[in-house]
Design a protein that fits this description.
The protein has 400 residues and is α+β, with helices and mostly antiparallel strands. The chain is built from eleven helices and eight strands. Strand 7 and strand 8 form a beta hairpin.
């Protein structure tokens, strides 16, 4: 049995003009904010194709740009605050973590990394779903999702455990962020190479090359950072000089910062630069999804039961504000026609008796009345309705 045209509207977007995501259609009807009424048996909805490829006010491709640029701007701000407060005079150029270890920059640093960890997880998940759409349904893509998610967890740990107060949790989070973050860039380079030929995006091969180059740079940076850490741990140190940090971490009366003695100042410069390269590399890895995410317009979440079937729900959505009801798929039929840029969908359904009857008895019951019948659940369905539901379930399973 062929899938009806209206089902094809919900297919995951691939950038082609032949298929239009239902989320990219804008209702131009004057009844846009009202729910579909079944009192007359048929509802006509008119949609217009949207050419801007957006889901709501902003496209999904904005999210990777936001997750890539905002941390850079935020870290520049925390560094400026720390520098003017004389909190980073110990280094020629501080490590990333030391731009937010003391008040007031500590608060902004923690907030920034918490937000970045959250947005990072969202992007990692969308990337997993994107590669899955391109045919990567095996263990590599799933493993990449796990690695990326744990790396984002490390970012959150770094933000919530400052190095000056909790070194062990901080270094643990930094290890997760840098090591797994680098591993994630390598995995995404592999996935990009494997799926580039299946994508309809015009410049996807340039993105593939960019990810491969980035993965090489990240691997070299991680190896350099680990070698630096090993060298510094064995670097001979003279007896430490006793310093009064309360005096060294605040400006002088003339506004200048006091000199902070640090015998490893020069070699620390190398370590801090490598650490910044790794940080920026991870942000670039996330930001590059901005181009790949142009392949889709909407994200759909499907609830499934333990047996893999879609979660059953009441086919009528009862709202206390009005007497309208939203129709479920098992109690409707759709007739879709396309004219130019307009898509006209006629929805025919069994009219509900009253809103109260539907709301009170929508638990696998069959309600009858003068105006017809309302089916809630799996009882009393016609053969045509069952065929339509099987088509919808089969289509959604194949493309989920």
């Amino acid at each position: 049995m062929n899938v009806p045209e209206f089902l094809k509207l919900s297919k995951f977007g691939s950038g082609a003009n032949k298929e239009v995501s239902s989320s990219s259609l804008k209702d131009k009807s004057t009844e846009q904010k009202k729910k579909s009424k079944c009192s007359k048996g048929t509802v006509t909805k008119i949609y217009r194709r949207s050419s801007n490829g957006m889901c709501g006010p902003l496209p999904w491709s904005i999210l990777p740009i936001f997750a890539g640029l905002v941390p850079l701007i935020g870290l520049a701000v925390t560094y400026a605050i720390a520098k003017t407060s004389c909190h980073v005079e110990k280094w020629i150029f501080p490590y990333v973590s030391y731009t937010g270890t003391r008040f007031p920059e500590l608060m902004y640093f923690g907030l920034l990394l918490n937000l970045e960890g959250f947005f990072g997880v969202v992007i990692v998940f969308l990337a997993w779903r994107y590669y899955r759409h391109l045919g990567e349904r095996g263990g590599l893509n799933n493993f990449t999702l796990v690695v990326g998610s744990i790396s984002c967890l490390g970012v959150v740990i770094v933000g919530n455990f400052p190095v000056t107060y909790s070194k062990v949790p901080h270094y643990f989070g930094a290890a997760l962020a840098f090591i797994l973050g680098t591993f994630y860039t390598v995995l995404t380079a592999v996935l990009s190479k494997r799926t580039a030929g299946r994508s309809n995006l015009k410049n996807i091969h340039r993105v593939k090359i960019g990810r491969i180059v980035l993965a090489i740079v990240m691997c070299l940076g991680l190896v350099s950072l680990m070698a630096f850490a090993a060298y510094k741990s064995t670097h001979p140190k003279s007896s430490p000089e006793v310093v009064n940090e309360e005096e060294l971490l605040k400006p002088k009366p003339n506004g200048s910062c006091p000199f902070y003695p640090n015998e490893t100042r020069n070699i620390d410069l190398f370590g801090s630069l490598v650490e910044w390269i790794l940080t920026i590399g991870i942000l670039i890895c996330l930001g590059m999804y901005s181009y790949e995410f142009k392949a889709f317009n909407a994200v759909k979440i499907i609830l499934k039961q333990k047996n893999g079937e879609m979660l059953e729900r009441c086919p009528y959505d009862c709202d206390d504000d009005d007497d309208d009801v939203t129709v479920g798929k098992q109690d409707l039929s759709l007739d879709e026609t396309t004219t130019g840029d307009e898509i006209v969908i006629n929805i025919s359904c069994k009219p509900p008796i009253t809103k109260q009857q539907v709301c009170d008895k929508c638990q696998d019951t069959h309600v009858t009345g003068d105006q017809g019948s309302v089916t809630c659940g799996k009882e009393c369905r016609t053969e045509q309705q069952e065929d339509m539901e099987r088509m919808v379930d089969k289509y959604e399973k194949e493309h989920s």
